[in-house]
Amino acid sequence: MVSAGVPVGLAGSASQLAAPIEAKVKKTVKRKASAYSIKYGKAFKKVAGKYKLKSGKWAKDGFKRAQKAAHALAKKMR
Description:
By secondary structure, the chain is mostly helical. The chain is built from three helices and no strands. The chain has two domains: about 1-30, no CATH class; about 35-75, no CATH class.
């Protein structure tokens, strides 16, 4: 912080306050994805192309329709 132009006294106290916050951030663990969410993700990637335009933009109500189709496909997947 000192190299960024912050006074030495202020930089020292700020780094002491930031240390516990940084420790908490490092401890966060990513939650395990459920089996259904993995199936849904794969199904969504399969059907998404059918609901997009040539330019890659979503068609009218395309995302909503793709989402519904992916849920239906995910139910049938094993």
